[in-house]
Design a protein that fits this description.
Helix 2 packs parallel to helix 5. A three-stranded antiparallel sheet has the order 1-2-5. Strands 3-4 form a two-stranded antiparallel sheet. The protein is α+β, with helices and mostly antiparallel strands. About 35% of the residues lie in helices and about 15% in strands. The chain is built from five helices and five strands.
């Protein structure tokens, strides 16, 4: 039998780490190795309550625009801003303004020709904000396998704070 190669995977299939661990796997490992100091086994409900509490605190820090430094040399989560604009690169126009999807959907629903031509409307903000996981300060191997993704609620709250002018960051 021929061994499968990464070069011959179906089109559109992304590289994924298949043997990754999740929150429940961590809970099972804590229970198995007795990594708790409460005098009795840690209940699943208690574990998830702790995880939710920590995630809530992390979300609050990110929404306020603060840099979150993870313990044990695991890197940082930080808010960065980039200059948006339109400029020429190799004779082609490059536009870095983000698409304003609310206005674009309204335009497409009222104008079939604009929808057919895929005309998009863009924000005119001077700055683009991104939450980045900074691995440069991390002290572990295989850094490419770590990724953080914010949920929609955090993104919306962060966007609201940026629009209100409550947050400014480095670039």
């Amino acid at each position: 039998m021929e061994e499968a190669s990464w070069r011959h995977r179906p089109k559109g299939v992304k590289n994924k780490v298949r043997d990754s661990i999740g929150v429940y796997d961590i809970y099972k490992k804590i229970r198995k190795n007795h990594w708790y100091d409460i005098g009795r086994p840690l209940k699943e409900k208690e574990f998830y309550s702790i995880i939710r509490g920590i995630n809530r605190l992390l979300a609050e820090e990110i929404v306020q625009g603060h840099t979150v430094t993870f313990p044990h040399g695991m890197g940082e989560m930080e808010l960065r801003k980039y200059k948006a604009g339109a400029f020429m690169v190799d004779g082609k126009l490059k536009i870095t303004y983000p698409i304003d999807w609310d206005s674009t959907w309204k335009l497409w629903s009222s104008d079939a020709e604009a929808h057919k031509k895929k005309i998009v409307l863009r924000h005119s903000n001077e700055w683009i904000y991104h939450v980045k996981y900074n691995k440069h300060s991390a002290k572990y191997e295989n850094k490419i396998f770590y990724q953080f993704a914010l949920n929609t609620f955090i993104k919306r709250e962060l966007s609201k704070n940026i629009k209100q002018g409550n947050i400014d960051t480095i670039w």
